[in-house]
Amino acid sequence: MTESLNHDLAHRMAELARTVASPRRVEDVLSDVTAEAKKLIPGVDAAGVLLIGKAGRFESLAATSDLPHRLDELQMEYREGPCVQAALDDLIVRSDDFRTEQRWPMYSAAAVELGVLSGVSFKLYTSSQTAGALNLFAFEPNAFDAEAETIGAVLAAHAAAAILASRQNEQLESALSTRDRIGQAKGIIMERYNVDDVKAFDMLRKLSQDSNTRLTEVAARVIETRGQ
Questions:
Q1: Cα(68)–Cα(29) distance, rounded to whole angstroms?
Q2: Coil, strand or helix at 214
Q3: What is the DSSP letter of 109?
Q4: What is the pTM of this model?
Q5: pLDDT tens sequence across 13-69
Q6: Rounded to whole angstroms, how far apart are CA atoms 17 and 22?
Q7: What gap in Å lies between CA 31 and CA 27, rounded to an integer?
Q8: CA-CA-CA-CA torsion sign (103, 44, 48, 7)
Q9: Do the beta carbons of residue 77 and residue 110 sit within 8 Å?
Q10: DSSP strands (E only) in 115-199
Q11: Side-chain-side CA neighbours of residue 155 (13 Å)
């Protein structure tokens, strides 16, 4: 990479790092990543993020135009394509010319009909719940090279960090909400039956075990009885 491109890349990566660390919606951070891909990587005509959940449920996010959404829909319909392959299997998947691509015949033909001739996809991460890929598309063949793969891999790392941070925040909020519900339920039991904190929790736990119901659900039912 040239010195000026190196400097520009470093500057933009620093900006993206700050956005990932800041309390922003994951969709906004991913939109920044796809927008930067168009700015930093020559030949990118469209960019987007594909997330694949359990049972094949998918989300098409942060697209720079409607084109990535349409391509994602085609891949999920045909169950083949570079974005799916990157999300579920390989780290980087590149096709230099969809007109001669043999790996995904149905998808490739459909992509060519939309005017897309080359593309490159980067795995974001794969968990037990979700897999994802950052996807770049071009209207010209042979649009991407090793330099494009290097920059794209860095951008994909930032996108993955944003998604994982969002998931962790959701888990934390869920844990805090669960703790609050159990705390409220314990307070109601303590007041109603004149028992201490430990005894109240033991009563909740026994109700959970006896009814084969999750502790949080038992707590919610106790809270609903307030005022009765």
A1: 17
A2: coil
A3: H
A4: 0.67
A5: 556 555 554 556 778 888 988 999 999 999 999 999 998 887 778 889 999 999 999
A6: 9
A7: 6
A8: positive
A9: no
A10: 118-126, 130-138
A11: 32
Locus of tokens 């959701």: 170
Q: Cα 201 to chain center, whole Å? A: 37
Sorted by sequence, the CB contacts under 8 Å of residue 35 that are 6+ apart come out as: 47, 64
Q: CA–CA separation, 140 vs 130, rounded Å?
A: 31
Q: For residue 150, which of 67, 18, 48, 37 has the smallest C-alpha distance?
A: 37
Residue 217: both structure tokens together: 């659900």
Among residues 122, 95, 123, 91, the alpha carbon closest in space to that of 111 is found at 95
Task: From 96, 92, 93, 53, select the one nearest 76 (Cα to Cα).
Answer: 53
Burial of 170 (0-12, 13-18, 19+ CB in 10 A): exposed
Three-state DSSP class for residue 104 = coil
